[in-house]
Amino acid sequence: MGILYIFIIGTVFGSFFGVILDRIPAHESIIFGRSHCNHCDRTLSLRDLIPIFSQIFSKFSCRYCHKKTSLIYLFLEISCGIIFVSGWLGLIDFTQFLFIILSVILSTFDYRYHSFPLVIWIIFTFILLLTSSSVLTDYIWLILSILAGIFDLKIGSGDFLWLFSASLSLTFLQEMIVIQIASILGITYFVIHKKRVEIAFIPFLTTAYISLILYQFIQSYFFK
């Protein structure tokens, strides 16, 4: 029962992150103002705001204008529920928990807008810096982020910011492994979809990071 309760709390946070995803780029308050449909602007009722179930019962569309809603919101709710349960069970430590939450949020922003609000990264990374240790070499990622904002390094400055935050819970070798896995995933996606446009890289970095954490968990518990 406790796990279900923690999962529900996680889905509520995931739902709130969906609000952030919509409102910050639109320069709307994330605290004030009722939730509304992004297409017809109708105010949503309580039955429309229940994480996961509201979307399933409404068949992933607005009850008023019947416009299809993005599956990103369902992804946020389910993934945050799983992350909260993983933290509750001790499968990941607090630094990993916080960083994975940050990564999921940044991934959705990067996927939709190919950018993310700097303030979100600053808030989470500030807490990470307070709860974990860093070394001088970690700050190379910040320098690269600045250079990427000035010169065309073929990788976004936001990706380097993500790597700096990741360095607070990874060794340098693990970071290189994450980058390699993410690159393979990105190239595979690029080839399959044959898109000659900029692709969001943070979702691949996040997938690689979680894969590494999962591998370490399996190795420590089943191959002692």
TrEMBL record:
GO terms for cellular component: plasma membrane. Pfam families: A24_N_bact. It comes from the Bacteria. InterPro entries: Prepilin_pept_A24_N, Prepilin_peptidase/N-MTase. Residues 8-86 form the Prepilin peptidase A24 N-terminal domain. The chain crosses the membrane at residues 6-24, 71-88, 118-151, 171-192, 199-218. The keyword Methyltransferase does not apply. One of its GO terms (biological process) is signal peptide processing. One of its GO terms (molecular function) is aspartic-type endopeptidase activity. Keywords: Membrane, Transmembrane, Transmembrane helix. This is Prepilin peptidase. It comes from Lactococcus allomyrinae.
